[in-house]
């Protein structure tokens, strides 16, 4: 038996078991299991140390993405740049490699979106760092970072400029004054309502804009509702979730899972 799991606190809401289980079944991996386990920051090291070599991979959700650096024996460049590990992969020497598939999830969700090299990131936290790396990978060359506290976005601007992306900061309430072709929101629910209230003008004021909101629970978010009502194309965080989970399955098993099967499981999970 080969095992994998999602760890976090709280973790009961996680769709990862449904996504991974569907992927393993589609790939014919009858000897794989995937479960969820409630684990806090202080417990992570001891819990991971308990796992024998049957355990091939771990998905990490909040609040474990930063403390995981203390557990991983090696860390990918992407995870280090993002400042977040959401995946632990068992190495051939039985130790753990820390990876970040959130970046791949955002890239997959936005692949094919016509951004014209210009985008906006809403928020400046850990997920915003993954969004910045994804936008750079997608060929975006000019990014505005809009945050409630403009000072906190300085590190995010530096991350972008280090990758050759022109970046500037602006208050969150100004994000919709000059709409850009692509907007990625990493905002928590409270800030989402605040950002949604910043959308003004007629019902077509955001026409030509694609907004991706990384949130998938309690969909649509206040921001997603406001953006759609003003003409934007809206992408749910469910797309990011499926793409990042598919990347995890490939890291764990060495096989690329069928996305259509995982999307079906995701939609059933949130229905």
Architecture overview:
The protein has 271 residues and is of the alpha/beta class. It has 2 domains: 2-100 and 239-270, Leucine Dehydrogenase, chain A, domain 1 (Rossmann fold); 104-235, NAD(P)-binding Rossmann-like Domain (Rossmann fold, 3-Layer(aba) Sandwich). It has helices at 16-26, 44-50, 77-82, 102-110, 126-137, 154-161, 189-197, 222-229, 237-253, 259-270, and strands spanning 2-8, 32-38, 55-60, 74-75, 87-90, 96-99, 118-122, 142-147, 166-171, 182-185, 210-213, 233-235. Strand 5 and strand 6 (96-99) form a beta hairpin. Helix 1 (16-26) packs antiparallel against helix 10 and helix 4 (102-110) packs across helix 9 (237-253). The longest helix is centred in the C-terminal third of the chain and has 17 residues, at 237-253. It is globular.
Question: What's the order of the H and E elements?
Answer: EHEHEEHEEHEHEHEEHEHEHH
- The secondary structure category is alpha/beta
**Would you identify the regions where 5 or more consecutive residues have pLDDT less than 50?**
none
Strand content: 15-25%
Mean pLDDT score, rounded? 96
Return the domain count. 2
Number of helices: 10
Q: Count all strands and give the number.
A: 12
Outline the biggest β-sheet: 6 strands, mixed
How is the largest sheet built, in terms of strand order? Answer: 2-1-3-5-6-4
> For the record, what is the CATH homologous superfamily label of the largest domain?
NAD(P)-binding Rossmann-like Domain
Q: How would you sum up this structure in a few lines?
A:
The protein has 271 residues and is α/β, with parallel strands linked by helices. It is built from 10 helices and 12 strands. Helix 1 (16-26) packs across helix 9 and helix 4 crosses helix 9.
